[in-house]
Amino acid sequence: MSKKNLKSAILLLAVLCMVFVFAACEDNELKDETFLFKNGVITGLTEEGLKKTELVVPAVFGEGAEAETITEIGIFAFKDTTALKKITISEGIKVIGNGAFWDSSVETVILPESLESIGSTAFSKCLSLKDINIHSAVKSIGNYAFQSCTSLETVVIESGFTTVPVGIFSACSNLKSVTLPAGVTAVGNGAFTDCDKLEDISFLPASVETIGADAFVGCDGIKTIEFSSNIKTIEARAFRYCTGLTSVTFAGDSQAVIGESAFQGCGITSLDLKGVTSVGANAFKANAKLETVEINGVKTIGETAFTECTALVTLKLNNVETIGESAFYGCTSLANVTLANVVNIETRAFRNCTSLLEITIPETVENMGSNVFQGCKATTDEEVGLVISCEFAEKPAAWKNNWAPANVKVVWLKAENAD
């Protein structure tokens, strides 16, 4: 190798060594007695820090020219800490990273007013955390931020965001008190799933328009719900299996859409769906205590929407465009049905309504599906079963031939020989 090439090789090697040394220095974490930190981010605790029960997270490390500003608690920084009971986060800290306190034993967390962001799962599985106060500077809270905090009882969120994040308080089984800011318009999917101690949702501001899928599934303690006129969408399974729920009220001008299985398996006793435009499939299925239902102006009642509501006695439907397939299937106590301005009655809509002895089909009904009244009480030599009075002279052409079983009595009220 020539001297020139050797000199070049040595120079290149020196440069590479400098790069590697610099990179290694960049990768090195700094630390004090308690904390590990790097580039303005708390990354973890020292062995000594892991033993402490109380911590104050500083916003500055060092003094004078050597001082370093800290603005963030990093991802998983305090994950699985078992000794920690109380932590105070100093003013100046702006970010708590994803999973920062995951599965920590912390009981008390004091957040600074400078905080702007809380990451996903930041406090998930903090089983001893009892309360949290989130100040108004916080503009972002990640999904599942407080999931499975089973001792959490009180939450105050001052302001700053419009959507309650997905799963944020799911499985917080002792959560009793929630304060949300005015201006919230949406509750995310699964936000309060299995929060057994919640007794109502009055903490939701009137500005809420959307309640996401599974938002309150299994919240057995909720007893009453009053929706404001701003509610537009209640998504699938939002209140499914809220077995303590007995009363649901809608404002008359809400124009709400109720999603699939939204109130399935609840304990609702009576229902007036004024202000609702659509009822999804299985929406009120298996509400075994439901006795009366009044629906006015709903475009569609979805399939099996009220199936197995075995205590339902009285049903009033007005200005309903479509009664979906099997909508009232198995409502074995249903005895009083009033239909007005109904257009379509689909297959098996009233199948196995064994207590139904009379019903009038209004002249507005254009389409009638198959087996609509299959399994209803039959007429025998000993007694008269279901009598269906139709405000027509004869069966309309669009009705299915097997719309009614042969063993029930059908009366065509406008036929020439009608009584």
Strand order of the largest sheet: 15-17-18-20-22-24-26-28-30-32
**If you average the pLDDT, what whole number results?**
92
Shape: elongated
Tell me the Rg in angstroms: 32 Å
End-to-end Cα distance: 120 Å
So what's the oligomer here? single chain
**Helical coverage, percent range:** under 10%
Description:
- It is built from one helix and 34 strands.
- The strands form seven sheets. A ten-stranded parallel sheet has the order 15-17-18-20-22-24-26-28-30-32, with no helix packed on it. A seven-stranded mixed sheet has the order 1-2-3-7-9-11-13, with no helix packed on it. A six-stranded parallel sheet has the order 19-21-23-25-27-29, with no helix packed on it.
- The protein has 419 residues and is mainly beta.
- 6% of the residues lie in helices and 25% in strands.
- It has one helix at 3-27, and strands at residues 30-31, 35-38, 41-45, 54-57, 60-61, 68-69, 72-73, 86-89, 95-96, 108-110, 117-118, 131-134, 140-141, 154-157, 163-164, 177-179, 186-187, 210-211, 224-226, 233-234, 247-249, 256-258, 270-272, 276-279, 292-296, 300-301, 314-318, 322-323, 336-340, 344-345, 358-361, 367-368, 387-390, 409-412.
